[in-house]
Q: What sequence folds into this?
């Protein structure tokens, strides 16, 4: 994914992020939320971004959307959307990428809709922000969108306010709004974390279906390794503002190369395991983003730490055309440890 | 009740013991009123609507269910934060349903609670030492001079640095705060700890640390847990038996593995099939039952089996019996009782699922 | 909604009964001066006082007097409805004076309200949108000044500067608009500004903090994510939510002012309710005090009712039944 390996020319490169850094100045010090992150998203693919709180997964994509701006943070690098660098666009031009070319849905649909406007009005507004559509036309399109995302009696429901919707229905509205202008990319930031598991299944299924219908690329940001296993083509694992591993979905689950990924896989309870062995948590605490550890940011918690890890930042290196990891262990070591210690359990 | 009187298999094969906690026909209805001075009752929320459960010494009973199923209300009823509307509660054989505040005090030492949001449940203006010492002071169980030593011992026990005695909650991370919450619950050496979503707010790597801590403490002190969570994987991991709740009722109880392999209630099946499994091949094999619609309002729960409006199984059976696309009439009219299936498994369903209906053999 | 309004109005009545009862108890059951003595004039004989007392009904037990007061209030007296009674001090019916003075107070309050709303909201918005910059600091400096400067000092300074020194404004006092609109305006401008300054400062601070809080809401992020212009994000999405609480505060503030802006009226020598009630209090003129209390209570109650109804229109989550 992040490598320069051969790619079939038929695949269109939709988004390319190069050496992105996002640092927030705060009274306590500079919060280094994203540190030198590079990746590529192809048209139509689904990328899962996995990490815990403070991993930089949300900030990365809020920056892509232009929702973190140079007013709040020091931003370096390039964000190329079909070759055009969004970081160098004037605000007014960038505004037309948001909502039109890229849509975003957030974790908390409860608070993400304006409480004072009807659901229909809010979708109409999204349409009319980018297109010269008449009020009536935009309204009809909004109702169609609500229908498309599976809201029963859409014409009637469009006239209701968000508080009259359940949590799952609100998330459907958010999706309808994000997709109203048929964007090329949908960024879903923990779209189901606040929802019950059966509703989560409905929403994920909906996103899967719409991905086909709209032929768009999807970024699924989550902390849940289960969600990405079922719904993503590629996965990148983030830790302390860097990508520590990225690869095709199977690479991450059946051939993981980074100790942090191993730690994640071993620390989640599995519904499908019959005997309940004790979990193997990652020791210690997530790092402060103000005082990021030297060398590999994971080294203070890593069971396989070596001297070099404390001093040298490991680069994200490919082991084959798709799979890369940022770790000083040799490939043979990684494969051996994964086989003997991680896969054993799973 | 005889159905549930089966003790979980004990390692040493001793005869079944009496339950530590018995919940008998417990209901909690919250009235909905209108008016300021002259309040008029216009309805009620059937938060918990007739639950029988036994919790045996040393076991972990998991409670799962979605928002509004009544699991957190049940926890508060057990601790008598709320009074029950109907039914009885027994602790160690004693009926404490109508105990006064004063009579509850000795019992309070035996039943403790761990909350979801460790930060909200810790007083930000008190040091960690004094938060953990609170139970000692309230119950006067430890002489004053020994409180500090006791607290530091507890801190060590839950994996906190005893030197951080004088720090404030905001100086700790989420996981450490939950350790503080556990230490406080442990202070009076309770026999039963009700854990209400204790790891839901934590990151995965930290979640595992707390789960392991709870498991270690259980075996060290012979604790009994009621473990409430919406995350089925976590509940299954920590629990000996799992009770699945839907709209104020228990619809199924079974051992974790039985529940996973052979759920009998269609709701359990749907819940299991909805849990994403962190294994791409396995999840590709899984049969997915996507439920339609939302959980109905507990103000006016559906007739008969409460799950019938959303139940795919009921429709399937109805279709086979020649009814057109609608739930089976029996499900609409008759409320199913908990009936035994596999050993230790009971489910409340007229048309229980066949074995291995959800998970295909892999 | 209809039932709700009826219920609320009944509450207003109950409230009026309670506050008048309270006032009655304070001024009548524990009197600083005997109203009868006050009324009987200089050096009265005990016989005259007794006579007066009887004629005023002051010999009745206290509760009877209160009931008589209520009866007058709700059913009217010899001077019409509602019966506000008779001033012991001026020996004249209260109602005509009262209404004249309410009008003056209302003109003062309404003009000031327009001023403080406009100034407060505009400054609050500018300040929030330029958070931490020079404009914000200037605005908040102004707000600090407005909140901390005493009204009487501001009033006197204003008079000194614009009347005594610059001579661009006329002095104190009140000219009815019907008599001379331009003089009315010139006489009111300073009282309006002085009264408005305190509120404007307070409102600016509130609008600023509300707006800043709203701008960090999730739905503002959503508005930006759908590509709305920043102008729309701020003025359509953020402002609507952050001004709603201002409405409720405004209702209460304005309602309270209708009971009289005592200091402003005193400094500028305006014949409003404030100066009226101050004089009545000094002289123990209970009927006047009660009349003003009734009006002031009514002002607050009605304004808060209006605000609540308005709120239901502004915030669709609120339903009255």
A:
């Amino acid at each position: 994914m992040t490598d320069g390996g051969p790619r079939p020319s038929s695949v269109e490169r939709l988004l390319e992020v190069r050496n992105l850094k996002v640092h927030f100045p705060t009274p306590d010090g500079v919060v280094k939320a994203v540190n030198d992150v590079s990746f590529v998203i192809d048209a139509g693919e689904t990328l899962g971004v996995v990490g815990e709180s403070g991993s930089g997964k949300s900030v990365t994509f809020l920056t892509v959307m232009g929702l973190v701006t140079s007013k709040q943070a020091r931003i370096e690098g390039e964000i190329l959307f079909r070759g055009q660098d969004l970081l160098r666009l004037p605000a007014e031009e960038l505004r037309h990428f948001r909502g039109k070319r890229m849509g975003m849905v957030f974790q908390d649909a409860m608070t993400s809709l304006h409480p004072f406007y009807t659901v229909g009005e809010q979708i109409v507004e999204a349409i009319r922000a980018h297109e010269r559509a008449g009020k009536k036309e935009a309204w009809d399109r909004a109702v169609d969108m609500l229908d498309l995302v599976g809201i029963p009696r859409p014409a009637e429901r469009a006239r209701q306010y968000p508080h009259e919707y359940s949590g799952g229905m609100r998330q459907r509205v958010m999706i309808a709004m994000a997709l109203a202008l048929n964007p090329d990319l949908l960024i879903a930031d923990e779209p189901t974390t606040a929802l019950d598991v059966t509703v989560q299944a409905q929403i994920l299924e909906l996103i899967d279906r719409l991905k086909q219908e709209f032929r768009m690329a999807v970024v699924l940001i989550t902390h849940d390794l289960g969600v990405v296993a079922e719904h993503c083509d590629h996965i990148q694992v983030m830790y302390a503002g860097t990508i520590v591993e990225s690869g095709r979905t199977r690479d991450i689950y059946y051939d993981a190369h980074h100790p942090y990924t191993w730690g994640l896989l071993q620390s989640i309870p599995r519904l499908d395991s019959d005997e309940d062995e004790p979990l193997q948590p990652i020791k210690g605490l997530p790092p402060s983003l103000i005082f990021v550890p030297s060398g590999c940011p994971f080294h203070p918690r890593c069971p396989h730490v070596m001297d070099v890890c404390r001093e040298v930042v490991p680069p994200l290196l490919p082991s084959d055309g798709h799979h890369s990891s940022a770790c000083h262990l040799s490939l043979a070591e990684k494969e051996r440890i994964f086989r003997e210690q991680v896969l054993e359990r799973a | 009740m005889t159905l549930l009187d089966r003790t979980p298999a004990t390692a040493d094969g001793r005869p079944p013991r009496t339950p530590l906690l018995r919940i008998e026909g417990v209901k909690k209805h919250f009235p909905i009123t209108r008016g300021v001075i002259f309040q008029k009752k216009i309805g009620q929320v059937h938060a918990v609507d007739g639950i029988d459960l036994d919790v045996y010494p040393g076991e972990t009973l998991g409670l799962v269910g979605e928002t509004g199923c009544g699991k957190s209300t049940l926890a508060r009823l057990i601790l008598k934060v709320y009074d029950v509307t109907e039914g009885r509660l027994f602790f160690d054989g004693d009926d404490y349903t109508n105990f006064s505040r004063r009579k509850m005090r000795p019992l309070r030492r035996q039943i403790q609670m761990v909350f979801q949001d460790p930060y909200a449940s810790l007083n930000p203006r008190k040091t960690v030492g004094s938060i953990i010492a609170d139970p000692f002071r309230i119950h006067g169980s430890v002489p004053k001079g020994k409180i500090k030593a006791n607290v530091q011992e507890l801190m060590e026990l839950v994996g906190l640095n005893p030197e951080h005695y004088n720090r404030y909650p905001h100086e700790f991370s989420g996981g450490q705060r939950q350790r503080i919450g556990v230490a406080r619950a442990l202070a009076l050496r309770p026999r039963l700890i009700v854990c209400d979503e204790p790891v839901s707010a934590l990151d995965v790597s930290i979640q595992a640390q707390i789960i392991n801590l709870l498991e270690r403490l259980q075996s060290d002190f012979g604790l009994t847990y009621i473990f409430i969570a919406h995350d089925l994987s976590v509940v299954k991991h920590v629990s000996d038996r799992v009770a699945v709740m839907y709209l104020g009722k228990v619809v199924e109880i079974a051992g974790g593995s039985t529940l996973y392999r052979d759920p009998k209630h269609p709701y359990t099946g749907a819940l299991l099939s909805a849990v994403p499994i962190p294994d791409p091949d396995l999840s590709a094999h899984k049969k997915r039952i996507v439920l339609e619609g939302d959980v109905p309002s507990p103000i006016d729960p559906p007739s008969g089996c409460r799950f019938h409006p959303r139940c795919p199984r009921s429709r399937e059976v109805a279709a086979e019996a020649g009814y057109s696309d609608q739930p089976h009439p029996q499900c609409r009219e008759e409320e199913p009782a908990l009936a035994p299936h596999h050993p230790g498994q009971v489910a409340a369903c007229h048309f229980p699922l066949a074995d291995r209906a959800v998970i295909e053999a892999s | 909604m209809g039932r709700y309004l009826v219920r609320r109005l009944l509450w207003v009545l109950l409230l009026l009964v309670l506050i008048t009862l309270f006032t009655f108890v304070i001024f009548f059951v524990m009197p600083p001066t005997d109203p009868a003595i006050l009324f009987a004039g200089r050096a009265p004989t005990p016989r005259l006082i007794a006579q007066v007392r009887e004629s005023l009904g002051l010999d009745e037990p206290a509760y009877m007097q209160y009931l008589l007061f209520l009866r007058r209030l709700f059913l009217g007296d010899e001077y019409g409805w509602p019966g506000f009674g008779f001033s012991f001090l001026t020996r004249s019916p209260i109602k005509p004076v009262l209404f004249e003075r309410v009008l003056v107070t209302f003109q003062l309050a309404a003009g000031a309200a327009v001023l403080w709303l406009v100034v407060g909201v505009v400054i609050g918005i500018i300040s929030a949108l330029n958070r931490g910059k020079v404009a914000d600091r200037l605005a908040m400096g102004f707000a600090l000044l407005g909140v901390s400067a005493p009204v009487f000092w501001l009033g006197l300074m204003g008079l000194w500067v614009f009347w005594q020194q610059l001579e661009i404004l006329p002095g104190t006092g009140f000219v009815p608009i019907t008599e001379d609109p331009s003089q009315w305006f010139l006489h009111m401008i300073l009282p309006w500004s002085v009264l408005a300054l305190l509120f404007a400062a307070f409102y600016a601070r509130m609008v600023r903090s509300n707006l800043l809080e709203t701008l960090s809401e999730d739905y503002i992020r959503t508005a930006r994510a759908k590509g709305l212009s920043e102008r729309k994000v701020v003025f359509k999405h953020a402002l609507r939510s952050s001004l709603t609480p201002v409405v409720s505060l405004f209702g209460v503030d304005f309602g309270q002012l209708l009971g009289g802006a005592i200091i402003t009226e005193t400094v500028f020598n305006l014949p409003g309710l404030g100066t009226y009630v101050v004089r009545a209090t000094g002289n123990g003129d209970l009927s006047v005090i009660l009349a003003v209390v009734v009006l002031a209570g009514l002002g607050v109650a009605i304004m808060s009712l209006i605000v609540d109804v308005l709120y239901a229109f502004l915030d669709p989550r609120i339903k009255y039944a």
